[in-house]
Design goal:
Strand order of the largest sheet: 7-8-10-9
Radius of gyration: 17 Å
Number of domains: 2
Strand content: 25-35%
Oligomer: single chain
Helix content: 10-25%
Number of strands: 10
Length: 177
């Protein structure tokens, strides 16, 4: 199923995202993928255009009518990759560990799925070339994985997991951005 990012201006919190998730999953041919309350957006998989109409009607009934994306969230203009941009992570507990998501300037739904059962994971990439890695020595491991791939600015942060542990999170941002 193709993925699509949708926007609902009335999204304000995790509860809104949970309601949208439940509503989307209740429509035949639709599946909720992820949500970002700060961008008032969510990602769905849809079987077709008629399913989008059904999702829109169901969300309107729940109080989350679809709306237009803001220019910053929905366009790849000159301002889409602001100089010095750094990610602001939203951490959500998952069955395997935690999902670290961020609102990427390219408007995709991006992040890293931390699986606590794996001692070392590979980085995950965004459509615009950002690479993200979380865990022990994330910066060092990320730099080693990028050898020969180009020039990157590396952002390193300590992000607190749902279980209270700070985890090093590193993102490689292409210098052209």
């Amino acid at each position: 199923m193709p993925q699509m990012t949708l926007y609902a201006p009335d999204i304000t919190c995790d509860h809104c995202i949970a309601t949208i998730s439940r509503t989307v999953d209740g429509v035949a041919g639709a599946r909720f993928v992820s949500g970002d309350e700060s961008a008032h957006s969510f990602v769905v998989e849809l079987d077709g255009g008629a399913v989008l109409d059904a999702v829109s009607a169901a969300l309107t009934e729940e109080g989350y009518p679809l709306g237009e994306a803001t220019a910053a969230a929905g366009e790849h203009g000159d301002d889409a990759f602001p100089a010095g941009w750094t990610p602001e992570y939203t951490v959500t507990k998952s069955d395997a560990g935690a999902d670290l998501n961020y609102a990427c300037p390219c408007s995709c739904d991006a992040g890293f799925a931390l699986d606590r059962s794996q001692s070392e994971q590979s980085s995950e990439s965004c459509c615009c070339g950002r690479h993200t890695l979380a865990g022990p020595n994330a910066e060092q491991r990320l730099r080693a994985s990028l050898d020969g791939e180009g020039t990157y600015r590396i952002d390193v942060q300590q992000v607190t997991m749902p279980w209270g542990q700070p985890i090093e999170t590193a993102m490689a941002i292409p210098e052209s951005q």
